Amino acid sequence: MSEPLKVLVTGAAGQIAYSLVISIAKGDVFGADQPVHLVLLDIPPMKAVLDGVVMELMDCALPLLTEITPLVEEAPAFKDIDVACLVGAMPRKEGMERKDLLAANVKIFKSQGNSLEKYAKKTVKVVVVGNPANTNAFIAKKYAPSIPAENFSCLTRLDQNRGQAQIASRLGVPNKNVSNVIIWGNHSSTQFPDVSQAKVVTSAGVKSVREAVGDDDWLNNAFITTVQKRGAAVIAARKLSSAMSAAKATCDHLRDWFMGTKEGTFTSMGIVSDGSYGIPAGLVYSFPVTIAKDGSYKIVQDIPISDFARQKMDATKKELEEERDMACSVCEG
Ligand code: NAD
Ligand code: LMR
């Protein structure tokens, strides 16, 4: 057995973490041979709830979970961590857009960026889940200058999973038969769920999703808006934001980042742009990536971009530039 991975989950007394920590601790993310030391961070008023989560995790008697450290202070929580799942932040309520959370949440990520810089391993891999996820990841990276940009990501896998599931349901095939749905841009209602490269395994062989669905009007309209607005639809129904599906998507994101993507497939992650596809370098934007077994990733290049796609990719880029500028003025103000 290898050394335990030290995995930090923030917002550990919250909804998403309640589903996330069990999957990580069971081996669903880092594999059945990889022991895990879970560090659970929340804020002081949540200490009692956090202790309850620790009791439950203990009571699962999991073979791979070597240690559980509940904390309500940042400095010890970020010490020597290998992985940071930055979930802790306020969720939006009905009628809010994710960027409405910016002023309240972005300062958390300034502080946690500073803590990553001071205390974490330089190899730490960071996934930001707390909203507005892309801009929070941008701020965390800004305040952790000595950690490589490629170690920062934000979650858009939930949007990808939503898109994949919508297509599978429309075609009446299992979810696993659908691949390569791309999410471009922001984890917000301006995101662009793109099926131009998506494939589906049918009884007649592998087809492009566009050919298999055979309804461009649905793919260019209802499909896109359903995925863009799914978070709001869940909030309207549950009166709480998505949690089980967000935790599952976080696990998918991390598993692919640690184990690599399958031959011929790619996945979408919010990452620090290198300027590909005309997206300004430094912006945290969701791109399709292939990931090698060592965890290094490459943005999938040379995807043909139609005028329709360009307009949508630019609209979500513009929103991210506005969020970035607002976040910087909150952090510097
Ligand atoms: P929640 O309110 O149930 O839990 C959030 C937890 O974070 C709370 O326990 C809170 O005390 C804690 N917290 C607040 N500030 C903290 C800090 N500075 N350090 C550590 N912990 C802190 O919310 P939730 O439903 O778990 O959602 C968490 C975040 O994830 C929200 O911002 C939500 O909008 C976002 N989210 C993102 C996605 C995505 O796909 N990117 C999906 C769903 C939800
Ligand atoms: C989601 O996509 O479900 C989350 O980001 C929660 C939200 O505010 O939509």
Automatic annotation (TrEMBL):
Every copy of the Lactate/malate dehydrogenase C-terminal domain together lies at 156-325
Q: Which SUPFAM superfamilies does the entry mention?
A: LDH C-terminal domain-like (SSF56327), NAD(P)-binding Rossmann-fold domains (SSF51735)
GO BP terms: namely: malate metabolic process
Q: Which CDD domains match?
A: MDH_cytoplasmic_cytosolic
**Active-site residues annotated for this sequence:** H187
What Enzyme Commission number(s) does the record list for this chain? 1.1.1.37
Q: Does the keyword Oxidoreductase belong to this entry? A: yes
Residues engaged in binding NAD(+):
D42, N105, V129, G130, N131
Residues annotated as domain Lactate/malate dehydrogenase N-terminal: 6-152
Identify the keywords attached in UniProt to this record, alphabetized: NAD, Oxidoreductase
Q: Where does substrate bind?
A: R92, R98, N131, R162
Q: Which GO molecular-function terms appear in the entry?
A: L-malate dehydrogenase (NAD+) activity
Q: What InterPro entries does UniProt report for this protein, alphabetically?
A: L-lactate/malate_DH, Lactate/malate_DH_C, Lactate/malate_DH_N, Lactate_DH/Glyco_Ohase_4_C, Malate_DH_NAD-dep_euk, Malate_DH_type2, NAD(P)-bd_dom_sf
Family under the similarity heading: Belongs to the LDH/MDH superfamily. MDH type 2 family.
Q: Which NCBIfam families match?
A: MalateDH-SF1 (TIGR01759), MDH_euk_cyt (TIGR01758), PRK05442.1 (NF003916)
Protein name per the record: Malate dehydrogenase, cytoplasmic
